[in-house]
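Example record

The entry below shows one chain as it appears in the dataset: sequence first, then structure tokens.
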Amino acid sequence: MRIAQRRRDVWSIASSLQDVRHHQLRVQGEWVDVVQMGQGDPLVLVPGLAGGWKLLAPLASKLAREYEVTISGLRGDRFPQGTTRVRGMGDYAADLGQIIKDLGLERPALFGVSFGGAVALELAVEQPARIGALVVQGIEARFRASLGATIARRVLERFPLPTDNGFVNQFFNLLHGGKPASGALPEFVVERCWETDQGIMARRIGHLESFDVSDRLWQIDVPTLVLAGSRDVIVSPARQRALASEIPGARCSMLEGAGHIGFLSHRDEVMSEVSQFLQEACHSHC
């Protein structure tokens, strides 16, 4: 009975979206999923290294109460072989810019998490006129490869793994900022992450290894918020505060008790921070 209840809890997280509008857009010859919901000012979410748009579903359903939320997929989410043509973070950012243009979104707010935060930063420095505000969580200006990330990449590249592989699942558990409490959320995270092909995970870690916008942050000329989990062991809070200090006019807000996936575990706080920030940004720049 407890197992059945846990499965229902996981399903309740996964099915939290309402009034969802699905699109498929062709980007560089590959179909990419795009999901939209809600009404209001446009807000584009960019997903992380694994899990795709579904991992952002719980946060998106909250933000959609106030905004027209668009979750942009990434090349490789649907067709793993397609990303052999992706040369680096610049290509993902160009894809995102094309999606924003194709959807007719005029200077939307952009919110990227983890890997998606790197994509958002790359777009913000290369096409600043494309967006109206920027929010990132779990990212820094230059990726610093850790031993754990290097090992994870090598394992994912070389060994076909079952979805119950303990080593990789332990890596996913680090996203919570330590050993996660039992419940539906850890299972939801693992299931969504394994929906991304392991070869794609490895390639994206490789793309991150060359990511560096530290000498271009001065080009960001939109209101910027950096959200940092106080227990983030993937990208430390200090490094995220440093990112905010290097972007003109940016501020950093701490999510107390949150790890790398604070956008999931602390989504009420994230909703509040983002809503307040975008209201202030509109009053200052509208």
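Notes for this example: The radius of gyration is 18 Å. Residues 140 and 215 are 12 Å apart (CA to CA).
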